[in-house]
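Long-time lurker. I teach an intro course on protein structure, and each term I like to show students one example going from raw sequence to a predicted 3D structure in token notation. This year I'd like something fresh instead of my usual example. Would anyone be willing to generate the tokens for the chain below so I can use it in lecture? Attribution to the forum is fine with me.
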Amino acid sequence: MSYDPPPPSPYPPPDSSPAYDTCPWVPRQEPGPTGRRPRHHTAPGHHGDLRVLRGAYRRQRRVATLTALGYFVLFLILSAFAPSFMTGTVTDGLPTGLLLALVQVPVTWLAVALYERTARRRVDPIADRIRRQAAPGTEREGAR
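-- Reply from a regular --
Happy to contribute to a lecture. Here you go:
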């Protein structure tokens, strides 16, 4: 008993590409250039505004991260390389290492507060301006 494939259908299968009759091992030919340039869509807002927003957000992240992580790394370095300093006492029975560890919580709160303050003062106004420019029905400002 031999197996003969069915004859090819004159109609393309539903939901298939126009190249339905090519074999998967045969390389596809890319369509030639049509002579038309692809349309480049610009993002809403000015590119300069988006660049300023990215820069402000980057500075905000760096300051907050370096505040929290910088203090933590300083604490770790002092713990590893200055054990005599960390075991010394500040007041009666309170070692310096414990005091620095307890100060870490307010430093983290300070980093969060600094992050929120810089967001409100520097990043949010830029984002709001870009959001207003991108809103439908609003006219965009001319190039600066």
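Some talking points for your students: The longest strand covers residues 89-91. The two ends are 79 Å apart (CA to CA).
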